[in-house]
Amino acid sequence: MTDKIKFDVYKQERLQKCSMCDRVKQLTYKITIYDNASTDNIIMSELQCCKVCGDNLYEILNPGSNRNPNEFVKKTFVFSNK
Ligand SMILES: [Zn+2]
Q1: pTM of this prediction?
Q2: Which end of the chain is less enclosed by CB atoms within 10 A, N or C?
């Protein structure tokens, strides 16, 4: 399920109305929800939300995870000793 919901973090936070709590706050996340019935990446909805709402939704979708969506791996390095 969670691969159908993608969290992206804005480079610069923007002051707008949060899609989830309806308050004007600094928006941190853009959350894209894809069609679960399709294997193609068909977008069903997009949410722009504040850090509190985004962190809470991430925790609900990934119970027991301490990982913060802000800490997604940006780049992977492969080390070789050849
Ligand atoms: Zn919010």
Answers
A1: 0.71
A2: C
